[in-house]
Amino acid sequence: PLTFQVKNKAPAEVQITAEQLLREAKERELELLPPPPQQKITDVEELNDYKLRKRKTFEDNIRKNRTVISNWIKYAQWEESLKEIQRARSIYERALDVDYRNVTLWLKYAEMEMKNRQVNHARNIWDRAITTLPRVNQFWYKYTYMEEMLGNIAGSRQVFERWMEWQPEEQAWHSYINFELRYKEVDRARTIYERYILFTLLVIVHPDVKNWIKYARFEEKHSYFAHARKVYERAVEFFGEEHMDEHLYVAFAKFEENQKEFERVRVIYKYALDRIPKQEAQNLFKNYTIFEKKFGDRRGIEDIIVSKRRFQYEEEVKANPHNYDAWFDYLRLVESDTDAETVREVYERAIANVPPIQEKRHWKRYIYLWVNYALYEELEAKASKRTRQVYQACIELIPHKKFTFAKMWLLYAQFEIRQKNLPRARRALGTSIGKCPKNKLFKGYIELELQLREFDRCRKLYEKFLEFAPENCTSWIKFAELETILGDIDRARAIYELAIGQPRLDMPEVLWKSYIDFEIEQEEYEKTRNLYRRLLQRTQHVKVWISFAQFELSAGREESLSRCRQIYEEANKAMRNCEEKEERVMLLESWRNFEEEFGTDTTKERIDKLMPEKIKKRRKLQAEDGSDAGWEEYYDYIFPEDTANQPNLKLLAMAKLWKKQQQESEAAEMDPDKDIDESQS
């Protein structure tokens, strides 16, 4: 055999994928084929020939696939269009032999018989359909509707009865009831309702409440109010307390409301609200509120609103007893509406939820429950004895060895003072300082004694306070101020001396400033200068020098200017070796401001020569891991006084001169015409 070899095995320039082929085939399916030519039949022979060909086509389609019911239906409908009813009936029967469970087939068969007014045939088909497939509701609906349209009410009722024997779903029962109501058969409809309710009781495990409500509304609609009430009562009894549903009680209450039985309505709502879980009774609350707004008084409306909110808070605190914010809201509600005993009961329940961990951050919200409880007993209930018991119980509960709350001690002491029981207040504050000393406790106790003008007690308390916290500068200052107010200057000065002699202080600058201000007030300028000198021995901070100079300036003597200038001179010499150049610049600027206001031209010129030159520099940065992090620009100061920096200044001046010459030469190159004009001129 001949073999052909492909010479060019390279891929084609235009590649066609399988997806493109499929898409093109799909697009061509949409192209319209030309319609078949119209055929005109002129005689019987041509008609018979046409029928034969069509029947052969249908039979071939059926023979190819017998299970495709649409082919059978098309065949039967074609025969029906030719008025060949017997042939169409035969085709439907053959199709039913193939698939008798097909619902569409039965429907088309029966519709054909009804369309051609073959009523008995249609009845026969419907009987066969409901016998074969009794759970297909559509057959029953169609059958009953046909009998009703034919006026055969007894026959339609008989079909419904047959249907009910199969215990269908809810809608079938309601269709039967509506059928009876259309013909004013109220007693029959009631009997059907009773049968349906009995059916739900015996067959359905969890019957729906809406069927009872529909039954009751049926009785109400036909003015059988006693029967309707009885239906509601039976429903409530049947569901009991285990399966209570708010919809049943809402419907029952609305029925009684329509009958103007308002007390009954109120009893129904309260009965339901007491037994249904609160999260499932939102609609019930809403309807009860609307009812009270319509027919109740103001007190009733407030009661329902408060009751609703109380139930919400109860659910919250049950879910999380340590949710103190929920307890606060709950207590605020009960305080505004209920009696003292109820409020006390809620407070006792709230304070019983002690935080499980003995850490202060967990107790901060909890302790305010006790505070509010004590304030309520004192201000609202006017029970001073119970208030004292609340404070004492709270103080005993707090673990003072780990932490304490100064607020509780101070509130207790203030309460005892309001009760004019000063010894108890002092005893409580003394106990607090002995058990768990805190700055706030000392301050509160001292403030109390100051208000009582017990200055000896204040001195003793300050001594204890400073023994407890000698680093607290505020306490030293307050103690000295107290002695100053009392006129004991030597004692105040001794306190300041003791304070600045402490090895560790939290705010030494504040203490020194207060001491200096104290001496200035006493006009002890020599002692003030000695204080400044002692302070400068400890620190060379620029603000101390500036403050010293300003003090000398404000002394108000003839030699104050020379003294002030001398302080600036000393400060400048002392800060030449200072690493923080910004502080030295600050000093020089303060000095320059002083000279501008009080100095001569010579002194002004001198200070101008001392001012530094500000230059921009770059330095290399390093990351935490030691790698290179780039460069950083910063400003540095070069002081003329520093001889080591003189070469730098000369180099800086030469760089500026060179930069100026470069700029001038560049400007000349950019504008040659200007040079020619200048040369001509």
Summarize the structure.
Pfam families: HAT_Syf1_CNRKL1_C (PF23231). With 681 residues, the chain is mainly alpha-helical.
**Kindly, what is the distance between the CA atoms of the first and last residues, rounded to a whole number of angstroms?**
108 Å
**Helix segment count?**
35
Output the radius of gyration: 53 Å
Task: State the strand order across the main sheet.
Answer: 1-2
- Principal-axes geometry comes out as flat
Q: Kindly provide the name of the CATH class of the domain at 208-296.
A: Mainly Alpha
Question: What's the average pLDDT?
Answer: 81
Poorly predicted spans: 674-681
Structural class estimated from helices and strands: mainly alpha
Helix percent reads over 70%
Give the percentage of residues in beta strands.
under 5%
CATH topology grouping of the domain at 208-296? Serine Threonine Protein Phosphatase 5, Tetratricopeptide repeat
Question: Would you report the number of β strands?
Answer: 2
CATH-level-2 architecture of the domain at 208-296: Alpha Horseshoe
Main sheet characteristics: 2 strands, antiparallel
Subcellular location: Nucleus speckle
Family: Belongs to the crooked-neck family.
Function: Involved in pre-mRNA splicing process. As a component of the minor spliceosome, involved in the splicing of U12-type introns in pre-mRNAs.
Region (Disordered): 661-681
Topology overview:
Blueprint: H1 18-29, H2 44-64, H3 69-81, H4 85-98, H5 103-115, H6 119-132, H7 137-149, H8 153-165, H9 170-182, H10 186-202, H11 209-221, H12 225-239, H13 246-258, H14 262-275, H15 282-295, H16 298-319, H17 324-337, H18 340-351, H19 360-363, H20 367-380, H21 384-397, H22 406-418, H23 422-435, H24 439-451, H25 455-468, H26 473-485, H27 489-500, H28 508-521, H29 525-538, H30 542-554, H31 560-574, H32 581-598, H33 601-610, E1 613-622, E2 628-638, H34 646-670, H35 672-680
Antiparallel strand pairs: 1-2
Helix pairs in contact: 2-3, 3-4, 5-6, 6-7, 7-8, 8-9, 9-10, 11-12, 11-13, 12-13, 13-14, 14-15, 15-16, 16-17, 17-18, 20-21, 21-22, 22-23, 22-24, 24-25, 26-27, 26-28, 27-28, 28-29, 30-31, 30-32, 31-32, 32-33
Protein name: Crooked neck-like protein 1
Coiled coil: 518-584
Function: Involved in pre-mRNA splicing process. As a component of the minor spliceosome, involved in the splicing of U12-type introns in pre-mRNAs.
